[in-house]
Amino acid sequence: MKNASLKVLYGEAFRAPSFEEMYIQNQPAIKGNPDLDPETIRSYEVGLSYQVNKYVACAVNYFYNAVEDLIGLRTPENNRHTSEFANLGDAHIQGIEMETKVNITKGNYLFMNYTYQNPEDNRGNDLPFVAGHYGNFGVNTQPWKYINTNLSAFFSGNRSRDNDNPEERRDDLPSYALLNLSITAKDSLRPWRCRGRCLTCLTRTIATPGPIAIPDDLPRPGRTFFVGLSYQF
Asked: In the Cβ-directed half-sphere of 126, how many Cα atoms lie within 13 Å?
């Protein structure tokens, strides 16, 4: 099948603990741990891609990741107000990724991707703060030969919490969606290039999971603008 490609991948990697994870001291709710070991991962993937016609391409992948010495926050029983970074044990993550790209004309296309995954620790429990569903969809257009616009939406399913203590159980983190817009002016201003971006355009308020001592979690930035000007020589 000349329009199809099959790939089989295997990889190994590690992630050393960050400076914050090892040595943070000025945050009363989070404590560093200088004895952390690096995370390691073995990944397996099987993927099939297919060019349906000159406009449409799609792909589907199955992946399985085996993680050892996973780094995360742990709240000790003797101090429920301070969480400490620790090696939480092993984890297994498997899932399916699907993506499609539809080329309409040169510089104008639609794109979509979706991932379903089942992240579990070595005890069969869901990994906290990891979404089982997430994806992107968007459109790239060139309304003028010197202007390129890209509008994309990211969505994530709900995320469970680390609820080891039933007395302090909190609701799962809700699902959310983000809308991002990018506009680039090029060629007409040579050798200059101007670019503007708007992130979280709908001002959706989302939060990064926080320890028990921070009941409202850690707020992330709302609507954000970036403007850039580059010169090539």
From this structure: 14
